[in-house]
Amino acid sequence: QVQLVESGGGLVQPGGSLKLSCAASGTIFSINTMGWYRQTPGKPRELVATISSRGTTNYADSVKARFTISRDNTKTAVYLQMNSLNPEDTAVYYCNLETTKVRTYTYWGQGTQVTVSS
Q1: C-alpha closest to that of 58 among 47, 45, 43, 44
Q2: For residue 62, how many other CB atoms are within 10 A of its CB?
Q3: What is the dihedral sign for C-alpha 40, 44, 50, 53?
Q4: Exposure pattern of 94-104 as b/e (b: 16+ CB <10 Å)?
């Protein structure tokens, strides 16, 4: 029932910027954590950044000082501002939502391709 719709991926030159957006819909418990993960061929999916409904953030070491995660609790949306992109950031980026109400539920978006290349 919960759906995550992503947008903002694309091709960008090294040193450039992109902003990813993800909007959640459906029956969602208000206390939740949303975030972004990324995956490249042959590698497991890895955490990029998360943000709780109260604004607590966590970042992977590789993106600290370059990426900023934010959210809009009214719309249950999450954003990822990516600056100073490099080819190592190339991956499929997935939106994630995790919520706990008696049990923990995890939801994923379809993924959006980010390619950093000259």
Answers
A1: 47
A2: 13
A3: positive
A4: bbbbebeeeee
- Tens digits of residue pLDDT in 23-53: 999 988 888 999 999 999 999 999 999 999 9
Dist. CA 67–CA 34, nearest whole Å: 15
Nearest to 79 by CA among 92, 98, 90, 95: 95
Distance of CA 56 to the CA centre of its chain: 15
DSSP structure string for 9-56: -EEE-TT--EEEEEEEESS--SSEEEEEEEE-TTS--EEEEEEETT--
Q: Which residue from 44, 99, 109 is spatially nearest to 79, judged by alpha carbons?
A: 109
> Residue 80, Cβ neighbours under 10 Å: how many?
25
